[in-house]
Design brief:
Blueprint (H helix, E strand, L loop, with lengths): L1 H20 L7 H6 L6 H12 L2 H15 L4 H29 L5 H8 L3 H34 L3 H49 L3 H9 L19 H13 L5 H9 L3 H26 L20 H6 L4 H35 L17 H31 L5 H25 L5 H20 L6 H21 L6 H8 L5
Length: about 500
């Protein structure tokens, strides 16, 4: 216990110290939200990866899907690396950096408002982002607190409150630069931690071959043995839905895409692509590979008689040595605090810049009317940063209230959040970067599609699982945008050409 407490205190002290170190760079909006658009490839790649993989993955998804699909759950981690990291960086990295800098966009709702010339889109996108990031944040709280409760014996409620307070401190102090620097430190812990935990868990089962043999002997729902050690598991189609949701979704999430806004240049994007993909292979692949052995341990049965999926991974780890448990606690703490920091920063900046302060900007090449002097401009900038800091506290309090009374499993919380956000944002954002003919009406239609199908499914009691519904929402957004764009009024060609000039340099 002494080792666990000491390591945790050191870790948390470093996080707060980084926030203090970065506070001078967080004085302006550009510095607080984007780190001055000068964050290098290593920090950006690790920020992308650590925001991607949190306690939601390590505890919730790895436990639930490892139990359901066995070793084939590893495909989810591979999909996260290939689609969610490699493809996301290749498709979005350069174009997002160039266009958002060209049109002076700081957030995803800001991009929609400027690219499609609609303040209404900007406002609605900010509301969607704020609302549906809350269940995701609650899921992260729940995952980290489950592990903390196991490692320290501290009641769940205290864990949630402590983690929320500490994350708020260093984000409020240092903004995005502090978040990115801490993400780098946390990412290193995650890389070493997941490798060490996998080795220890397999060793406790007699090694890899023995663990696979035991898993192969376990019968599936139909009584057939070997399915949990097979290549594609007992439910290949269900597995595909999870891969789509957890991999494709990153390209439509504000807190993930925002990483491309802040990276330094195109050379850094190429290096960041490689770093981020390797990170995802190790962390995501390792998490789901580990979860695939969950059936070798006795599950916890909840009060309703069903398996408590969020307790599967803790049950696998509770018998490890104290030093390894301390490492696991730091692993999950690192993964979760980085994701929480990204979520609260995204939510507060979106609400401040896109709902409270909706400055109408001139398009590239146009003259901006009614410019104000530097003194007034600096005062407004400082006021925006103060409001963002206040909203960070507000967002954390709301998500805390949900986390203290979580309505469902972690995986379902994340499914609802990712389904609505990526279902609404993925298609119009990606096509807005590549396709000149995408129209304002098509973005409205995709917002209605992504949020509508997710909320309707939830109100009807989830006749389609939130995971599958999220995958449908994301993929369905592309034909919605294309079809509506073909039959709705086109945007002024001169304005669109002016925005796309950034790719011709």
């Amino acid at each position: 216990m002494f080792i666990k407490i000491l390591l945790t205190i050191i870790f948390l002290a470093i996080m707060v110290g980084v926030g203090l170190y970065s506070r001078k760079q967080a004085a302006s909006v550009e510095g607080f939200v984007l780190g001055g658009r000068s964050v290098g490839p290593w920090l950006t790649a690790f920020a992308f990866g650590t925001s991607y993989f949190s306690a939601v993955v390590f505890v919730g998804y790895a436990g639930q899907f490892g139990w359901k699909y066995g070793l084939s759950a590893t495909w989810i981690g591979i999909g996260n690396a290939v689609i969610g990291s490699l493809l996301a960086w290749m498709l979005l990295g350069r174009r997002t950096k160039l266009m958002t800098q060209h049109i002076e966009s700081r957030t995803m709702p800001d991009f929609f408002g400027t690219r499609f010339q609609s303040q209404g889109l900007r406002v609605v996108a900010s509301v969607i982002a704020f609302i549906f990031l809350i269940p995701y944040t609650a899921g992260v709280y729940k995952g980290i607190s489950t592990l903390f409760e196991m490692g320290f014996g501290i009641p769940y409620e205290y864990c949630v409150i402590i983690m929320a307070a500490l994350t708020a401190i260093y984000v409020i102090l240092g903004g995005y630069k502090a978040t990115a620097m801490n993400d780098f430190i946390q990412g290193i812990i995650m890389l070493f931690g997941i490798v060490a935990v996998i080795i220890a868990v397999l060793a406790s089962q007699g090694g890899l071959s023995e663990a696979v043999r035991k898993l192969a002997e376990m019968p599936g729902d139909d009584g057939q043995t070997g399915v949990f050690a097979s290549w594609f598991g007992p439910y290949p189609l269900g597995l595909l839905g999870v891969v789509i949701l957890t991999s494709l979704g990153t390209m439509g999430l504000p807190q993930m895409v925002g990483k491309f806004y802040s990276i330094t240049d195109e050379r850094a994007i190429r290096r960041g692509t490689i770093i981020s993909t390797v990170f995802a292979f190790v962390v995501a692949g390792g998490c789901y590979f580990l979860g695939g052995f969950g059936r070798l341990y006795d599950p916890v049965i909840a009060e309703n008689g069903k398996i408590a999926f969020d307790s599967i991974v803790p049950a696998m780890l509770v018998q490890l040595s104290p030093a390894l448990i301390a490492l696991v606690v730091l692993l999950v703490l690192s993964a979760s605090m980085s994701t929480l920091a990204s979520l609260v920063l995204t939510s507060s900046s979106t609400m401040t810049l896109d709902l409270i302060y909706r400055d109408k900007k001139a398009l590239p090449g146009e003259v901006e009317e009614g410019s104000i002097d530097d003194t007034v401009s600096e005062h407004i900038e400082r006021r925006k940063v103060v409001i963002m800091r206040v909203l960070i506290v507000f967002f954390i309090v709301i998500s805390l209230m949900l986390a203290l009374n979580p309505p469902t499993f972690i995986a379902q919380l994340m499914g609802i959040s990712w389904g609505a956000l990526a279902g609404a944002f993925l298609a119009p954002f990606m096509l807005g970067l590549y396709w000149r003919r995408a129209t304002t009406a098509s973005v409205w239609a995709c917002f209605a599609w992504g949020v509508g199908i997710t909320v309707l499914n939830m109100l009807l009691g989830n006749p389609i699982s939130p995971i599958d519904c999220g995958a449908i929402a994301m993929l369905g957004g592309f034909p919605v945008v294309v079809l509506v764009s073909l039959f709705s009024p086109q945007m002024p060609k001169t304005d669109v050409d002016r925005m796309f000039q950034c790719y011709e340099k």
